[in-house]
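can u pls check wat happens w/ FE2/S2 (inorganic) cluster
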Amino acid sequence: MAETIVLEVARYRPEIEAEPAFENFEVPCRPDWVVLDALNYIKDAIDGTLSFRWSCRMGVCGSCGMMVNGEPKLTCATFLTDYLPGPIRIEPLSNFPIVRDLIIEMSDFMTKLQGVKPWIIRNEDLPVSQGEYRQSPEQLETYKQFSMCINCLLCYAACPVYGLDQHFVGPAALALAQRYNLDSRDEGEAQRLEILSEHEGIWGCTFVGECSVVCPKHVDPAGAIQQYKLKAVTEWFKSILLPRGGRD
Amino acid sequence: MKQPVTYTLYHPKWYRRPMSTYWWTKRWRYLRFILRELSSISVAWTVILLLLLINSMGDEAMYAGYLDWLQSPWLVVLNAFALVFLLFHTVTWFNLAPRAMAVRLRGKRLPDWAVAAPNFIAWAVLSAGVVWFVLKGV
Amino acid sequence: MARRSIEPLLWSLFSAGGVVSAFFMPVLIFLFGIAFPLGLIEAPGFQSISELIKHPITRLVLMVVCIFPLFHWAHRFRFTLYDGLQIKHLNEVIAVVCYGGALFGTVLAGYLLWNIG
Ligand code: SF4
Ligand code: FES
């Protein structure tokens, strides 16, 4: 059990360093350890000031996303032994500002997420006494893939378009918009389309496709965005060809 | 409408990493993406060749001149490169199309290959058709 | 939609061009750029090819094969310049050059096809 591996961890403590720098830590390399375990080992046994986010340790909360050797990963699902002999370079997710050490500032995503109205919109809410909105397994199937998102932001870290222009709404938020558009109970598609089809939001996407590659939940945000474009195009032609009926 | 970019709401101090101009050299898949996008140059180039062909329909000498010009070695090399990029375009295009279309049959989404395959078959048929017409005339 | 953006139109032209290019371009460049010059296949004679190209249906097909791919190029090239070189501040200039080029090509194609022979 003498085996160890070196972690090059990006540190940024605003009160100490002006810009991020790497610090090396040697940690035990156990076969059942993931990167997150190693980080917790550092925090417990070597340097208690190391800051990072995590919660569930099982790939559901989406808070432990970091760059592992340059690739966005859930650190709770990334085994140390896959990187032997090391070293492993741990950095905060790309394309976001760094608050401290491995913690990124994500309020931009939160704002964007709200902007696409990711909830069920009804023209008229039925009274509770009328019972629930029913949905068949087939109807569920149409959007299920997009509903698996855990907001881990790996896709944003992988997206060069977002890295270059922070106005781009980005993969996860668009996939979630699509998730509600495809929901048979939802009637908000026109509202969302109006928000997203106009500005460079969806049109900025050039289908790099990297977001779908790194997504740990197989959401395929890149596919969702192209489907969104197709939809926007259809609506656009409708509004041209049917000057009255097609639009609001 | 431009969505505002909100970052400093809760954290007055943060560090922003600049993105390198050469970001697309950092990862193989990024490079592949840029090459895929650059295949559009081959597309434009083929259009130019076609326009020149159409232009050479004036008389026999012009057409002979056009064919002659195409024989210049540098052009053949260039066109070989263009062909590689165009094939790359075709393959990536057909493979990505199913993700944008999401074809459903009786509630189930068709697997990607089932959407892509007919495209590839149609491609083969059309290409054969083009060869036939160009060689045999009308 | 109050202010209708033009992006949907550009994107549909781009997509249409992508489809047309995917189907037609490889075989065309193979024939004219490689097979004929190298003598792998004998190039068709003037009589036969000019008859083919002058046929109204061929003209229509050629029109499609020229126009949409040009807009496909314009769109992709525009975004490649933005992303690859990070020159988004030249947004307007690039757009004018790219789509303007495609428009010019369209007019040229129309003119040539109209006036063959
Ligand atoms: S789409 Fe995938 S990568 Fe992006 S936030 Fe959701 S789960 Fe994470
Ligand atoms: S800790 Fe919850 S996803 Fe990794």
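Chain C has one domain: 11-114.
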